[in-house]
Amino acid sequence: MSEYIENVLNNVKAQNPNEPEFHQAVEEMLISLEVVLERHPEYKHAKILERMVEPERSISFRVPWMDDQGEIHINRGYRIEMNSAIGPYKGGLRFHPSVTRGILKFLAFEQVFKNSLTTLPIGGGKGGSDFDPKGKSDNEVMRFCQSFMTELFRYIGPNVDVPAGDIGVGGREIGFLFGQYKRLKNEFTGVLTGKGISWGGSLIRPEATGYGAVYFVNEMLKTKGEEIEGKTFAISGFGNVAWGATKKIDQLGGKVVTLSGPDGFIYDKDGINGEKIDYMLKLRASANDRIKDYADKYKVDFYEGKRPWSVKVDVAIPCATQNEIMEDDAKELLKNGCICLCEAANMPTTHEAYKIIEESHILFSPGKASNAGGVATSGLEMSQNSMRFPWSAEEVDTRLHEIMTRIHDTCVETAERFGTPNNYLNGANIAGFLKVADAMIDQGLV
Ligand code: NDP
Ligand code: 2IT
User: Ligand 2: which atom is nearest the Cα of residue 372?
Assistant: First the structure.
């Protein structure tokens, strides 16, 4: 690591204590950018890196709400508006008890480069709350969402900042948030994405992240003369992204054999297909956070407290959360002959696990490239809202497929151009960075 890059990183650590995930995301990015800075000293003179690691705006606010028994609770809400060089801030909202400012800063930082890769005009942001949706009634979730939006509405808008879903925020929450925004502003605009189909949402948005990740896997496999048909897949999580990925793999003739939850993982040797995929939606909606229910219903094996990476599969797609693939998991995957690791969650692979995967030379795609289908389809939802004209499912899916193929090819070309062929992580980081950096230079000292 050059002295300059090391200084930037050390400053980030000193100025943002207790934010290990943010440090991790920045470090991963800076390692890839070393070669770019050597070839382009103008970015160093313009202090682009130092500017990029500082959010343009970082908001936190109180969210008071009342439960069904009349008791009052206070949660903390956030919105990190990271970078608006190429478009309005765009990125999801996460409701999960593990949410902190540091987690949202890492997600917002990743989002900037991911959104740049989509080729759409969207900047990067992320928000959320430490609110725990587990076990809450619909009314409690509604009151929470209304209170959250009562503060957030001041900072967002269809040309300013357009939030969407992430962990713990799906169609129901987006509905409650949108309803409250509309009341407060007295306007019907595309201020959120992931909306219901009858009120401005886009077809395919719920499926988009998972579908996009599988399209990306398909492109990666093609470079090795391989295909999805006949391959086995390990998936973690059982939420929105896991569901979309499982559905597309099944359509393309692959077999998903695992899902996981906070309680452990299930192994279904016959494959998760047909009504079992629909059952995933019921499981998620139950808010019980238990994957064991799947094992009980379909009489398959359940491994309590374990992650699914010890199972013999061809392809692994983590779809749950950050740092869910550790060093030992990476070793297990390789030992069992896995040929491809595609990140569908954000930063699911630890730095140590990535080093092992990198040395093995199996196919690896970073989340900011392979999970970009979700936000890309959010961008397509914004286009449809601006035109006030909805597209068919086929049209959206075709565009999504084209975008994912383009991101894949951009990663490959950029990695090659900067001297690290086949390294999708470097390709994604560098390509995502260049567009944002050039826009910042064009716009002066911002
Ligand atoms: P969901 O809330 O639908 O599902 C999340 C899944 O991950 C659940 O199974 C959840 O279980 C599990 N999970 C979440 N946090 C933890 C944790 N700390 N420990 C163990 N398990 C956990 O979210 P999504 O499917 O939308 O998101 C999954 C991943 O994909 C996230 O990393 C998200 O950032 C990423 N992503 C999502 C996109 C989208 O469009 N939705 C787009 C791009 C990336 P539980 O809640 O019980 O902990
Ligand atoms: O991490 C992500 O890209 C998302 N949660 C989707 C963001 C969006 O604006 O659709």
Answer: 3
133-137, 270-274, 425-429: least confidently modelled range:
133-137
User: What residue has token string 């999580």?
Assistant: 237
Between CA 421 and CA 146 the distance in angstroms is 49
> Which option is the CATH number for 208-361: 3.40.50.720, 3.30.70.100, 3.30.2310.20, 1.20.1560.10?
3.40.50.720
**Which atom of ligand 2 has the smallest separation from the CA of 111?**
3
Name the token pair of 206: 């719920």
Q: Is the CB of 64 under 6 A from ligand 1?
A: no
Pocket test for ligand 1, best of 241, 284, 349 (most atoms within 8 A of CB): 241
β-strands 301-304, 161-164: how paired? unpaired
For the chain, give every domain's residue range: 3-188, 208-361
pLDDT tens digits along 129-147: 999 999 999 999 999 999 9
Indicate whether this model's pTM tops 0.70: yes
- Ligand 2 binding pocket (C-beta < 6 A) is 90-92, 111, 114, 164, 166, 193, 346, 374-375, 378
What would the CATH number be for the domain defined by 3-188? 3.40.50.10860
Please identify which residue in the block is written with the tokens 């994912």: 404
- Nearest ligand by distance to the CA of 89: 2
**Strand, coil or helix: what is 10?**
helix
Distance 88 CA to ligand 2 centre (A): 14
pLDDT tens, residue by residue, 296-311: 999 999 999 999 999 9
